[in-house]
Structure formats: structure tokens, C-alpha cells
User: Which sequence fits this backbone?
């Protein structure tokens, strides 16, 4: 049973601030590949209609959360994820940098909050968390982001039970660790850690009481069955991830997947719609690849159940042309952003 379910009803239920309000939609954890493939292959508008129907039953306020992602430690990663420009082994022009200082990170979080973000995700290009001064700095960053009244999320690679507990004690809301693709396709993309390693990290996060952010990437050369297999792997976990980022590969020169074909928007919309139907109470996040989509395709993703968008690496400064474009789209379409938490006082600039 998912943590979002009432023990009595097995229906969507949570006290989280962005909680779906309805208790009407049952959560299932027994999806078959055949069932999901049949959904994926529906005529697009039928699929979007079904996804929107589920979405409105659960997410009655129909708001979209703005999230900001900051790379707090860029490049030099020892892993070999075939899509990633931060892997040290690929010649992508991404230099290995040191971990950012705590005040720098908090200044970025503050800017993001001023521009309307309510969730701040900090990513480090590490294989795993190592105890020591760097991890201690990350704990300070988490505390600082929380003091700004934002949701704090980290993605730091694999971690131990004790490290997960320390992150929880610092106030971390969510930990991102993606499954990336289906178990069958996984070995073609990554060899330096296994699918099982990923599931173990997710279990540690869950056991520490941190909410799970787990999704994947489409456009990795996977088949449609692999895409559906990823969705099955996510939805059939004992607890649905509270947050499901759906990314489209942005091919980067120097990585093994540099020549992969661009993902068609319609494929991304289908994947989001299936994620919404399979995991009704999860936040489905339209993540990497959004920049390549036109406005209408982005709106169709929201119609299909995406209720969060990522602003990638760019800072959400007002005056940032891309951010202004995003806000203009929201205004034109009447999409309501989820309000920042206004109860928390603004802390002095550092
Ligand atoms: S672990 Fe993360 S940073 Fe490292 S190569 Fe894989 S995706 Fe990139």
C-alpha cells in the first residue's frame, strides 16, 4: 500500500501541503505491461481525456508547481550514464567543478523563490554520498532551503541508511533517484551501477521517511515496451513515488547518445498521460526537454496530467527571458502556479 493511501480505503489520501484532495481514485500496484501498453497505444486524445479525468478527480485545484534545479557540484562524475554530459569519461566540455559554497546555493534558492519556485532541487554529480565536510555542507544547504519556506530536494547518488536519516533530520523533503528506463534496457545505458542498486537507494530514502522522487528519461533508444516497462516499475513499487519526473533526452555532443533522434512531443505526452493514470496521486513533473517543445505541446502535457514544471539549470531571476516566456505562457493559458509558502519570513540576504 502506498503512503498516500488510507489504510482503510486504499484510496488516495495524504496530509501533504500539495495533497490531492480527493479520496475517490484507488491506487493500484499490480499493473501489467500489456495493460500499460494498451493505454499508451490509445488514440492520443482518448488517452489524454482519460488522464485528465483521473487528474481532475484527484488534483481538484489543478495548479502547476514551479521547481528550480541547481547543480551544486557539476561534472567529473565517475559513473557512465550514456546520456550524461557530467560523466568524466565523456568529452563534452563540462569541466569538473567543486561543490558550491552554502551561501551561494542559498542565494540561488532565494532568487528561485522570488521568481515563484516552491521547490528547490540540488544535484551533485557524485556516484554516492561520502561522509565528511562536503556532506555536512549539503546538510546546511538543506536546512537553509527549508528556512526559506521551500520544499528541499536533493539528488546526490547512492546513499546509506545513516546518511538518509541525516538528510531527513536536516529537513529534506524529497530525494531524487531515477530508474531512468526499463530494467531490460538499463544495461545498454549504464554499467557502473545496477537497477537493483537504484532500488536499494530508493528503499533507504523511503525508510528514512523522505519522500521519493523517481522517474526516467525517454529517448534513450528504448522501445515503446521499455517505456511502458519503466512506468510499470515505478507504479508497481509498494509505494508510488510521490514525485515522478518525466524527462526527454536532450542529446549532448560527446555522450554515447549524442546522435539519438529527438523525442517527439507526442511520445512525451503519451508517457505523461500514462504516468498520471498509473500514479494518480503523484506529482508528475515535466522536466528536461521542455525547452524543445512548443507552447501547445507543453499545455497538452499539462492536460495529460503534468502538474509541475522544471526550470532546469537556469536561475529563476525575473528578467530572465526564458523565465519571462514561461510566465507569459502560464498567463496566456490561465495556468495557476502553486503559490510559494508565504508564511515563512524572508531571511536576511547572505
Ligand atoms: S550519476 Fe548522475 S551525474 Fe553521474 S553520470 Fe550518471 S546521471 Fe551523470
Assistant:
Amino acid at each position: 500500500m502506498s503512503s498516500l493511501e488510507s489504510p482503510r480505503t486504499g484510496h488516495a489520501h495524504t496530509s501533504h501541503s500539495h495533497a490531492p484532495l480527493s479520496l475517490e481514485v484507488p491506487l493500484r500496484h499490480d499493473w501489467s505491461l500489456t495493460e500499460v501498453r494498451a493505454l499508451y497505444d490509445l488514440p492520443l486524445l482518448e488517452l489524454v481525456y482519460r488522464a485528465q479525468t483521473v487528474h481532475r478527480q484527484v488534483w481538484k485545484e489543478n495548479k502547476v508547481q514551479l521547481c528550480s534545479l541547481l547543480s551544486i557540484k557539476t561534472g567529473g562524475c565517475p559513473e557512465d550514464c550514456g546520456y550524461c554530459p557530467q560523466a568524466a569519461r565523456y568529452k563534452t566540455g563540462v569541466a569538473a567543478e567543486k561543490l558550491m559554497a552554502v551561501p551561494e546555493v542559498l542565494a540561488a534558492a532565494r532568487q528561485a523563490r522570488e521568481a515563484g519556485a516552491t521547490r528547490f532541487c540540488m544535484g551533485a554529480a557524485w556516484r554516492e554520498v561520502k561522509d565528511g565536510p562536503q556532506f555536512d555542507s549539503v546538510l546546511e544547504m538543506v536546512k537553509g532551503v527549508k528556512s526559506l519556506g521551500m520544499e528541499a530536494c536533493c539528488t546526490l547518488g547512492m546513499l546509506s541508511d545513516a546518511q538518509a536519516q541525516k538528510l531527513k533530520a536536516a529537513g529534506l523533503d524529497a530525494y531524487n533517484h531515477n530508474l531512468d528506463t526499463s530494467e531490460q534496457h538499463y544495461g545498454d545505458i549504464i554499467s557502473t551501477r545496477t537497477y537493483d542498486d537504484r532500488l536499494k537507494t530508493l528503499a533507504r530514502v523511503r525508510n528514512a521517511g523522505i519522500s521519493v522522487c523517481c522517474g526516467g528519461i525517454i529517448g534513450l533508444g528504448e522501445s515503446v515496451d521499455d517505456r511502458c516497462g519503466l512506468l510499470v516499475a515505478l507504479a508497481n513499487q509498494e509505494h508510488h513515488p510521490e514525485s515522478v519526473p518525466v524527462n526527454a533526452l536532450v542529446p549532448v555532443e560527446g555522450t554515447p547518445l549524442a546522435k539519438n533522434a529527438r523525442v517527439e512531443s507526442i511520445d512525451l505526452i503519451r508517457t505523461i498521460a500514462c504516468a498520471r493514470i498509473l500514479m494518480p496521486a503523484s506529482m508528475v513533473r515535466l522536466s528536461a526537454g521542455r525547452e524543445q517543445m512548443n507552447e501547445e505541446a507543453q499545455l497538452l502535457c499539462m492536460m495529460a496530467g503534468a502538474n509541475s514544471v522544471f526550470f532546469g539549470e537556469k536561475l529563476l531571476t525575473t528578467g530572465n527571458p526564458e523565465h519571462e516566456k514561461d510566465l507569459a505562457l502560464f498567463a496566456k493559458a490561465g495556468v495557476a502556479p502553486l503559490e510559494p509558502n508565504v508564511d515563512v519570513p524572508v531571511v536576511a540576504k547572505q
Observations:
- The beta strands are 65-73, 119-124, 151-155, 174-176, 211-213, 216-218, 243-248, 283-286, 308-310.
